[in-house]
Structure formats: C-alpha cells, structure tokens
C-alpha cells in the first residue's frame, strides 16, 4: 500500500511512551484495587463493533486534521470552522449511538429494584 509503512526500527522509548505505559499500568492497578474488576469475553459482534469503530475514529481524526484534542478543544477555542464542525458532528454521533444502542444503560436504564429494603447496607459504600 503506497504511503503506509509499519516499522519498529524507529521506535524510541521516550518520555511520552513511558507516560502512556504509566496510564495503562495505573488504570489496571486502579481496576484491580477496586475489587470489582472482572475480565469479560467479547462476542463476535463486540469485536466487529470495536474494529469498525476504531477505523471510523482513525479516519475521522485523519480527515478532520486532528483528533478530539486538536479539533474540538483547540479548534473551538480559537474559533476555527473545522473545530466547530467536528464538535457538532461528534456530538450528533454520540447522541445517535446512545439512542440506537439499546444495551447502553445511560439511555435505557433497567427497572428500579423494588424488593430491596430501604435500610439494606450499600454494597459499594467504603
């Protein structure tokens, strides 16, 4: 493929790379220490959604001349048309995704529990 090259020869362990590894390690440690971490298996549909979503995010960042930070935050802050376009269409995309994904507990919460006594201890309280 013209213009695409994948090589590990130029990989340097810079401070930015170490910070990125630190983010992953810290998030993993926080998840483990919460006591509620449980690995889950992904269905084939989940894998397809993740791959398609990753390609769409990458394509969107490439065509918008930057990612979320470069376009929505900095672009809107300086009043760039591209920043406002990115912000509007990203917001519309999030709203549509939440509306059409019936598995999302944000827009379609389950029924309220009615059989739990009101004086029951909170399982998530410290």
Task: Give a quick rundown of the structure.
With 126 residues, this protein is mostly helical. It has helices at 15-33, 44-63, 68-77, 81-100.
Fold and architecture overview:
This protein has 126 residues and is mainly α. The chain has 4 helices and no strands. The N and C termini lie far apart (54 Å).
Oligomer: single chain
Low-confidence stretches: none
Query: Rg to the nearest angstrom?
Result: 21 Å
- How many DSSP H or I helices? 4
Question: Helical percent range?
Answer: 40-55%
The structural class is: mainly alpha
Strand content: under 5%
Q: Mean pLDDT across all residues, rounded?
A: 76
Order of helices and strands: HHHH
Instruction: Work out the number of β strands.
Output: 0
Principal-axis shape: extended
User: How far apart lie the N and C ends?
Assistant: 54 Å
Helix and strand arrangement:
Blueprint: H1 15-33, H2 44-63, H3 68-77, H4 81-100
Helix pairs in contact: 3-4
Features:
extended; 4 helices; mainly alpha; 126 residues
